């Protein structure tokens, strides 16, 4: 990184490493002096075109001698005054560097349900695979009656054929509710044990009226 800084600004640099922790350290340390950085490891080496072949959707033109020259307008004008570096690499490496999950990155499976963990114990990329669930006619009818949502796309087969979907579909909120039900751990006390310290205010199930009570 010290050698990279001596250049006082370069258009692009490449990092070859199989260590994602090392890649993150190098990227964060050298990014202020580069417009674009490429990380190569065994996951992306075969498809890599090298840092001399940027993708069309990458914005580059780094600081120092590499120069800027981007057009200004709207949010681009604001971002023009912010340090930006385009990062290339495998999804797993990009996830390790940015601390945000990127599609295609390695998924982490753990037999311990997320509800039984402290927040700080969760890992980026941690994945919970649930059982399968089939949406039935009864699901749609029951949810429509409970919610009062009898929109034609859910109940009118003939009208739904001319809609964007081409057929009847389940309620969006039903899908979200069903997904939430598949995600939770039904065992008693799984969340409460982790939340005792903060004692968040919650309304107990089945009690739509009355004051809020604290979880215990």
Percent strand equals 5-15%
Spatially, the strands of the biggest sheet line up as 1-2-3
Helix content: 25-40%
Mean pLDDT: 77
Structural class: alpha/beta
Domains (count): 2
SSE ordering: HEHEHEHEEHHHHHEE
Shape: elongated
Number of helices: 9
Total number of strands: 7
Give the distance, in angstroms, between the N- and C-terminal Cα atoms: 51 Å
Major β-sheet, in short? 3 strands, parallel
Low-confidence stretches: 60-69, 194-216
What value does the Rg take, in angstroms? Answer: 25 Å
Features:
30% helix; 216 residues; single chain; 7 strands; disordered C terminus; alpha/beta; 2 domains; three-stranded parallel beta sheet; two-stranded parallel sheet
Question: What's the short version?
Answer:
Helices cover 30% and strands 12% of the residues. It is of the alpha/beta class and 216 residues long.
What layout of secondary structure does this protein have?
Layout: H1 2-6, E1 10-16, H2 20-30, E2 34-40, H3 75-79, E3 86-88, H4 91-98, E4 108-109, E5 126-127, H5 137-147, H6 152-155, H7 157-161, H8 172-183, H9 192-195, E6 201-202, E7 213-214
Written account of the structure:
By secondary structure, this protein is α/β, with parallel strands linked by helices. The protein folds into two domains: 97 residues, no CATH class; 78 residues, no CATH class. The protein is 30% helix and 12% strand. It is built from nine helices and seven strands. It has a three-stranded parallel sheet, covered by helices on one side. A two-stranded parallel ribbon has the order 4-5. Strand 2, helix 3 and strand 3 form a beta-alpha-beta unit. The longest helix has 12 residues. It is elongated. The C terminus is likely disordered.
């Amino acid at each position: 990184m010290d050698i990279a800084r001596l250049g006082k600004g370069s258009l692009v640099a490449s990092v070859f490493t199989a260590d994602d922790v090392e890649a993150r350290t190098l990227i964060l340390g050298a990014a202020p002096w580069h417009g674009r950085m490429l990380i190569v490891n065994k996951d992306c080496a075969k498809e890599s075109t090298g840092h001399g072949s940027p993708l069309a959707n990458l914005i580059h033109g780094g600081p120092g001698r590499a120069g800027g020259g981007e057009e200004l307008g709207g949010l681009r004008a604001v971002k023009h005054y912010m340090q930006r570096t385009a990062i290339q690499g495998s999804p797993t490496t990009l996830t390790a560097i940015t601390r945000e999950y990127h599609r295609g990155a390695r998924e982490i499976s753990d037999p311990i349900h997320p509800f039984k963990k402290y927040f700080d114990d969760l890992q980026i990329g941690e994945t919970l695979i649930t059982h399968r669930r089939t949406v039935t006619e009864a699901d749609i009818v029951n949810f429509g009656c409970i919610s009062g949502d009898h929109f034609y796309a859910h109940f009118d087969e003939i009208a739904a054929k001319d809609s964007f979907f081409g057929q009847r579909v389940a309620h969006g909120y039903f899908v979200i509710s069903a997904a939430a039900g598949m995600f939770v751990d039904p065992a008693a006390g799984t969340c409460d044990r982790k939340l005792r310290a903060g004692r968040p205010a919650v309304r107990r199930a089945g009690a739509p009226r009355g004051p809020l009570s604290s979880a215990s």
